[in-house]
Amino acid sequence: MKTVFNMKANFGRTRRMSALCVTGNKNGLAGFALGKSPEGRAAMRKVRIYMLYRNFYFPVFHDFYTCFGKTQIFVKKKPKGFGLVCHRAIKTICEIIGIKDLYAKVEGSTNINNLTKAFFLGLQNQKTHQQLAQEKGLHVVEYREERDNFPQVIASPSKCRTMKEINPQEVIDYNEHINEGKVELIKTKRRPFYEYLDSWEYRVKKIERFRNHENVHVNLLVEHGKLTSFLNIEEQQKVVNTESNE
């Protein structure tokens, strides 16, 4: 809720209350509405009535790009446990819809009304993999690191185009097609001030011999279940090999 003012010729400066609300069932159903009234309770009453007719169901969720006015949002689906790393308004909408893992980058205006409208437009304009394959006339192929980037066909069109029918300048990359050719702005992080001091260079040289010790400890615990020297591990392996040969 916020207070808005409007200057009129007859009444002068008039004061009103604006209320923006989002509702949902945390299972894909959500809606939003905006109501204005001279009093806050009346604005909330209007919003409740408006939201009855403005609910949407979003059965599909994947990466997408959306915009409204001067607001642009790049949304990326993340694996389980990542959490919601996004603007507070988008985070609230995701909690109401039931989305638990998401990363969203907002560029341009961060007006709450524009953010809400842009995010709902992006969710509503999503297409399934089968619809994308039918639209482009090409196979939708997925590559994953856990499968050593082995290609897996997710969706196939009813009639696939040949290489001669594909325009060389046509966008066939999935991410570029979803983002409508837009590229997310990634700003380079500034180095902290202390890295320019002489004492920082001395500290880096001092701790050089301890680099990656934590990762080595974790790998030893995972592979062998205890912290031990590499020499002991090699000797144990030799003993096991000799016993097996005997």
Automatic annotation (TrEMBL):
One matching Pfam family: Ribosomal_S5
Residues of the S5 DRBM domain: 1-46
UniProt keywords (A-Z) are: Ribonucleoprotein, Ribosomal protein
Q: What name appears for this protein in its UniProt entry?
A: 28S ribosomal protein S5, mitochondrial
Q: Please give the PANTHER family that the UniProt record associates with this protein.
A: MITOCHONDRIAL RIBOSOMAL PROTEIN S5
Q: Name one GO cellular component term.
A: ribosome
InterPro entries per UniProt: Ribosomal_Su5_D2-typ_SF (IPR020568), Ribosomal_uS5 (IPR000851), Ribosomal_uS5_C (IPR005324), Ribosomal_uS5_N (IPR013810), Ribsml_uS5_D2-typ_fold_subgr (IPR014721)
